[in-house]
Amino acid sequence: IEDNLMKIDTIKPAFSDDRGDITDLVYKEEFDAVTLIYSKKGAVRGNHYHKETTQYSYILSGKIRAYSQKPSMDVESAILNTGDMMISNPFERHTLHAIEDSEILIITKGPRSGIDYEEDTYRVEPLHLI
Question: Which of 12, 35, 40, 109 maximizes the CB count within 10 A of its CB?
Fold first, then answer.
């Protein structure tokens, strides 16, 4: 995927047999936080960016409309289904709008985590309204 486009991957199993699947969500990366978010249908989350944090948003269940905006670019939108992951790099504005009740695993690399969440979170106008 080109650098100027929203980065979304459908994660596929690394190994499958009659017992089931083994799926590596991320490989050879170090992280600072793993967060589980439950969003009810219609909930809007995000509407921010991080200056130093890369955020991985993995859809455990449900359906999300994701919005992304890189600096000096138009807002992009995509539907994320179970098994999809969106990667938001530093300075990339992002919004997640739950189309269905959804569970999202947020994995972050950088200072946006725990009690330091607001230290690297910069609020913006909701992308779904632009």
Answer: 109
